[in-house]
Design goal:
single chain, four-stranded antiparallel sheet, 17% strand
Length: 330
């Protein structure tokens, strides 16, 4: 059947009627011709079928009042009480056929549709009202309204889901940006500590062999340089060249000036344990370099500390902490 293309409003109306199996033969032919010639008709029918399929889940079943059947009998021109079962079964057949046209009902819908056809045959013949509204059926405005409500609910849920995903994506992006910025700050700080450590090593004149060992350790990719922060307002400084994977740590300290009756002692801290790692003796400029015994690093280290102890030191710290550094990733 050829003719002028159907407008969008009429397409949507006919698509809803087609999805609910509520079109007359004439309107069905017009719409199916539009399906062949107008892509937007296919899209409208797809939307209508999705909405029709959602009607079963969106609407709770309601038991009709007795007077409803009386009204149906009056519309069909039957005597009160006669053909009620046929009318009910016929109505069930129409609904089942509409649901079956959406692909949502399966074999159950087919069975109900068969029973509805039998019931309709038992009752009086259905008369179609005249006019455009009559061609599509008096129930169509209500069906279109229900279909529109179901589609609106479906699209609202999808928009809410999209908004939620957009919020989650934005939050994840912000978290990652903050994580990258923090890591950049940490790397910048570590580069500064490494540069300072190299300067301290260059200034050292004693223990050349240990100095060369420290420089070589700096070249390993798994090595970290930990800043040793001065404690208690003292003019001390230093760093620890740490490679726990190899159980190697070299301490480079400055400002360890000689004090009568005192010695600087190095500690490996792991949990509540403080393990004595030897004495440090500052040179002429208060510079000191020391290697930590690998046996003390077998279970890792949480921190490294230098304290000022009575001469000769001891197995447990007694004096004040002068330098302290936290070991990352241990």
């Amino acid at each position: 059947m050829s003719g002028a293309p159907l407008g969008q409003d009429e397409l949507e109306e006919l698509a809803a009627g087609h999805a609910l199996d509520a079109l007359t033969a004439e309107d069905r032919a017009r719409f199916e011709a539009a399906l062949e010639a107008q892509p937007e008709a296919v899209a409208a029918l797809t939307r209508a079928r999705v909405g029709a399929a959602a009607l079963g889940a969106a609407l709770a079943p309601v038991e009709p009042r007795p007077e409803v059947w009386t009204g149906i009998e009056a519309q069909l021109g039957a005597a009160p009480g006669a053909g009620a079962a046929g009318a009910a079964a016929g109505a069930a057949g129409v609904v089942a056929g509409a649901v079956a046209s959406t692909g949502a009902a399966g074999t159950t819908a087919g069975a109900v549709a068969d029973s509805g056809a039998v019931g309709a045959a038992a009752g009086p013949a259905r008369r179609e009202p005249a006019g455009r509204a009559g061609r599509i059926g008096r129930a169509l405005p209500w069906a279109v309204a229900a279909l529109a409500a179901a589609l609106a609910l479906l699209f609202w849920r999808r928009s809410e889901e999209g908004a939620r995903r957009a919020r989650e994506t934005a939050q994840l992006a912000a978290f990652r940006a903050a994580e990258v910025a923090t890591r950049d700050r940490e790397l910048t700080a570590e580069r500064g500590v490494t540069a300072e450590c190299r300067r301290d090593l260059d200034a050292m004149r004693d223990d050349v062999a240990l100095k060369n060992e420290a420089v070589a350790l700096l070249e390993h990719a798994s090595t970290r340089v930990v800043a040793l922060s001065a404690q208690g307002g003292r003019a001390h400084g230093g760093s620890a060249i740490v490679n726990l994977a190899q159980r190697r740590v070299v301490i480079v300290a400055t400002g360890l000036t000689v004090e009568a009756g005192k010695d600087y002692e190095l500690w490996v801290i792991r949990g509540q344990d403080k393990l004595a790692a030897g004495l440090l003796h500052g040179g002429e400029r208060g510079q000191a370099i020391a290697r930590v015994d690998p046996a003390l690093l077998g279970d890792g280290a949480d921190a490294l500390a230098i304290t000022l102890e009575p001469a000769g030191g001891g197995p447990v710290p007694q004096g004040p902490v002068v330098l302290l550094g936290l070991v990352p990733g241990s």
